[in-house]
Amino acid sequence: MRATALSGAALAAALALACFSAHEPSTDVVGVSCTRAQQPPGPDTAFVVIRGFAFQPAALSVAEGTTVVWVNCEVEGTPGHTTTSNSWDSPTLAPGESFAFEPGAGTHAYHCRPHPFMQATVTVASAQSLANARR
Ligand SMILES: [Cu+2]
């Protein structure tokens, strides 16, 4: 099922605001993968949606031990994207495909190889820094 351009933009805005709200519509441009990506992240999994030649959210913060899953939610026929950093490098992901990686503590800048203007970060808080923050 193909969403209209308008609802795609609305989806992107809602995602950016709500960060994977459970109330996202289940109809999506490529189906199952992106529907799953819109579920709230579990305790050990966080999702980054690739849509409109952008990573959403552009700045993700997670705890150490979290697996980050990038899901390409572009409409079918859109050129593929990668998620590429000094620590990981995905294959080119076609719409509907995903890539999972568990980044170590620190701030990781990453980009898309075919589209270097697509840039984002994942910040991973170490278990130690989280323990200190709770004091
Ligand atoms: Cu790209």
Structure characterization notes:
With 135 residues, the protein is α/β, with parallel strands linked by helices. The chain has a single domain (2-133), classed as Immunoglobulin-like, CATH 2.60.40. It is built from 3 helices and 7 strands. The chain has helices at residues 5-18, 32-37, 127-133, and strands at residues 45-50, 55-56, 59-63, 67-72, 98-101, 106-111, 119-125. Strands 2-1-4-5 form a 4-stranded mixed sheet. The protein is elongated and about 50 Å long. 30% of the residues are buried. The model is unreliable at 1-32 (pLDDT under 50). The protein binds copper (II) ion. Copper (II) ion binds at residues 81, 112, 114-115, 118.
CATH topology, by name, is Immunoglobulin-like
The CATH architecture: Sandwich
User: For the terminal residues, how far apart are their CA atoms?
Assistant: 49 Å
Number of strands: 7
* 3D shape: elongated
Give start-end ranges of low-pLDDT stretches. 1-32
Given helix and strand content, the structural type is alpha/beta
Residue fraction in strands: 25-35%
The averaged pLDDT comes out at 77
Q: Into which percent range does the helicity of residues fall?
A: 10-25%
Rg measurement, Å: 15 Å
Tell me about the largest β-sheet.
4 strands, mixed
- What ligands does this structure carry? copper (II) ion
Number of helices: 3
Kindly report the name of the CATH homologous superfamily: Cupredoxins -  blue copper proteins
CATH class: Mainly Beta
* Widest sheet, order of strands: 2-1-4-5
